C-alpha cells in the first residue's frame, strides 16, 4: 500500500507573501452549528482541509444539502433527518464531538460514534457531558463505540466548567441555544474561535452574550434562521508561517492576520530577537530572519497566553538560539512526540514528561526520515526540514493536511525545495 510523503531539501532562503486561511478551529465548530439553522446558510473563508470535507460529509449523512466549493460552503437544512452518525468518519477527527451539541440542540437526541483526532494523550469529554446533563440530557455510554444522548426537554442551567475547555464551552453553547430559559457558562474559554462561533450563532438569531469573557450567557430562542458568515483568519496557521519566516525567511509578508490573536507569539518572537513588523491596519506581518536568536523560556497557557498549538512550530527556532531554552506544556503534557523525531535530525533536545518541560539547546539539524505524530508536530518537522542540511522525508502527512491549506504549494511559491512523493 502506498502513502504520500513530504520531502524537503533544506537550506533554501524563502521570500514572498502568503495569505492565511480561515480558522480551522472555528470552521470545525461552525460547520456542525449550521444544522441548527432553519434556513439557508453560506459560510465564506473556510480552510481547504480534510477536516472540513469530513464534517460536510457528516452533514450529508443527516440529509442536509451541503455544497462545498473551495472556501465557500452552502447549507440547506430544509430536509434534515436525525440519523446515527457513522463511527469511521467521526473517529477521524476530534472536532466531530461538536455534532453532539448541535444535534442535541436541534433534535433533543443523537447517537454518535466516539471522536478521534490527534493522539495528544487523555482529552476527556467529561466537561461536555456535565454540561449536557445540566441542560436536562441523559447519556447512555454503555456502547464501546458510540454514545446516545437524549433529553425530553432542554432547560437553561448554571454550569461551572472544572477546567477551561474550548470544546466544552462551544458544545454546551450549541446545545443551549434552543433550551428554555437562560444558560450561564462560568469559567468559559475566551479563545477567538469561541467568539467566532457565538457570533455565527447570533447571526442566525441566537441570543448569546459575554463571548470572549469567562462568563457566557445564552438565552434560549425557539427558532434560528439562515445567514451568510465569514470565518476569522486562522491564528495557528498564521503563527506557523511566522515561525517559518523567522527560521528561513529573507523577507516574508503574512497577509490576513488578526494581530491581537497572535500577540502572545509576537511578543515571544520579539524576545527571541526576530525582525518582525506588524501592520494592524493592513492585517499583515512582515518578518525577516536573523542568523542567531536569544534563548527564551516558553510556557503554554489558555488564551490569551501562548497557544499550545504553537509550542511545536516554534521549537525549531530555539535550535538557532545562543543558549538553552525551556518549553513548558501546561495544556497537553504529552505533546512532545516530536522530540524523538527531532533527535533523529541531530537536535539536542530532551523532554521531561513528569514536569511537561522540554530543554532545547543550540543544534545543527540534518535531514532524516521522520514521522508526524499529530498536526502541529507535522508543522514542526516541516520547519525543521527547511532548516536542516540535506533531505528530510516526513511520513504520516495526513495529519498535516488536516490543518494546513496547500502548505506544500505555499512553501514552493516562497522558494522552498519541497515536494510530495508516493512511497
From TrEMBL:
Phosphoenolpyruvate binds at residues 24-25. The keyword Transferase applies. Keywords: Cell cycle, Cell division, Cell shape, Cell wall biogenesis/degradation, Cytoplasm, Peptidoglycan synthesis, Pyruvate, Transferase. Pathway: Cell wall biogenesis; peptidoglycan biosynthesis. Cell wall formation. Adds enolpyruvyl to UDP-N-acetylglucosamine. HAMAP family: MurA. Pfam families: EPSP_synthase (PF00275). It is found in: Cytoplasm. UDP-N-acetyl-alpha-D-glucosamine binds at residues 94, 123-127, 309, 331. It is an enzyme of class 2 (transferase). The active site is at residue 118. Its EC number is 2.5.1.7. GO terms for molecular function: UDP-N-acetylglucosamine 1-carboxyvinyltransferase activity. InterPro entries: Enolpyruvate_Tfrase_dom, Enolpyruvate_Tfrase_sf, MurA_subfamily, RNA3'P_cycl/enolpyr_Trfase_a/b, UDP_GlcNAc_COvinyl_MurA. It catalyses: phosphoenolpyruvate + UDP-N-acetyl-alpha-D-glucosamine = UDP-N-acetyl-3-O-(1-carboxyvinyl)-alpha-D-glucosamine + phosphate. Signal peptide: none annotated. The gene is murA. The modification 2-(S-cysteinyl)pyruvic acid O-phosphothioketal is found at residue 118. It comes from the Bacteria. Belongs to the EPSP synthase family. MurA subfamily. This is UDP-N-acetylglucosamine 1-carboxyvinyltransferase. Residues 9-410 form the Enolpyruvate transferase domain.
Amino acid at each position: 500500500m502506498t502513502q504520500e510523503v513530504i520531502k524537503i531539501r533544506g537550506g533554501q532562503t524563502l521570500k514572498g507573501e502568503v495569505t492565511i486561511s480561515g480558522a480551522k478551529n472555528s470552521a470545525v465548530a461552525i460547520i456542525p452549528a449550521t444544522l441548527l439553522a432553519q434556513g439557508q446558510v453560506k459560510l465564506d473563508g473556510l480552510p481547504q482541509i480534510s477536516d472540513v470535507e469530513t464534517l460536510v460529509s457528516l452533514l450529508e449523512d443527516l440529509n442536509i444539502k451541503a455544497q462545498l466549493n473551495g472556501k465557500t460552503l452552502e447549507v440547506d437544512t430544509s430536509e434534515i433527518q436525525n440519523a446515527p452518525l457513522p463511527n469511521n468518519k467521526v473517529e477521524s477527527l476530534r472536532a466531530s464531538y461538536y455534532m453532539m451539541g448541535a444535534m442535541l440542540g436541534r433534535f433533543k437526541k443523537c447517537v454518535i460514534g466516539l471522536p478521534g483526532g490527534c493522539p495528544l494523550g487523555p482529552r476527556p469529554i467529561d466537561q461536555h457531558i456535565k454540561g449536557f446533563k445540566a441542560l436536562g440530557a441523559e447519556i447512555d455510554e454503555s456502547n464501546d463505540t458510540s454514545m446516545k444522548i437524549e433529553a425530553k426537554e432542554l432547560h437553561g442551567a448554571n454550569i461551572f466548567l472544572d477546567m477551561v475547555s474550548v470544546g466544552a464551552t462551544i458544545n454546551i453553547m450549541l446545545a443551549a441555544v434552543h433550551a428554555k430559559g437562560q444558560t450561564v457558562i462560568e469559567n468559559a474559554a475566551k479563545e477567538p474561535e469561541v467568539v467566532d462561533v457565538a457570533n455565527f450563532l447570533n447571526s442566525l438569531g441566537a441570543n448569546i452574550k459575554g463571548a470572549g469573557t469567562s462568563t457566557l450567557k445564552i438565552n434560549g430562542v425557539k427558532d434560528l434562521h439562515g445567514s451568510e458568515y465569514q470565518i476569522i483568519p486562522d491564528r495557528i496557521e498564521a503563527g506557523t508561517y511566522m515561525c517559518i519566516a523567522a527560521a528561513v525567511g529573507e523577507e516574508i509578508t503574512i497577509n490576513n492576520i488578526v494581530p491581537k490573536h497572535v500577540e502572545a507569539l509576537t511578543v515571544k518572537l520579539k524576545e527571541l530577537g526576530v525582525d518582525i513588523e506588524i501592520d494592524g491596519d493592513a492585517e499583515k506581518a512582515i518578518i525577516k530572519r536573523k542568523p542567531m536568536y536569544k534563548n527564551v523560556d516558553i510556557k503554554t497557557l489558555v488564551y490569551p497566553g501562548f497557544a499550545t498549538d504553537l509550542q511545536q512550530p516554534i521549537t525549531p527556532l530555539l535550535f538557532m538560539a545562543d543558549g538553552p531554552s525551556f518549553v513548558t506544556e501546561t495544556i497537553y503534557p504529552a505533546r512532545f512526540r516530536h522530540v524523538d523525531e527531532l533527535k533523529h535530525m541531530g537536535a539536542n533536545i530532551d523532554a521531561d514528561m513528569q514536569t511537561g518541560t522540554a530543554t532545547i539547546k543550540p543544534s545543527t539539524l540534518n535531514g532524516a526520515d521522520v514521522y508526524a505524530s499529530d498536526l502541529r508536530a507535522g508543522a514542526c518537522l516541516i520547519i525543521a526540514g527547511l532548516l536542516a542540511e540535506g533531505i528530510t522525508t516526513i511520513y504520516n502527512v495526513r495529519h498535516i493536511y488536516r490543518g494546513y491549506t496547500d502548505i506544500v504549494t505555499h512553501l514552493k511559491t516562497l522558494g522552498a525545495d519541497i515536494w510530495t512523493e508516493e512511497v
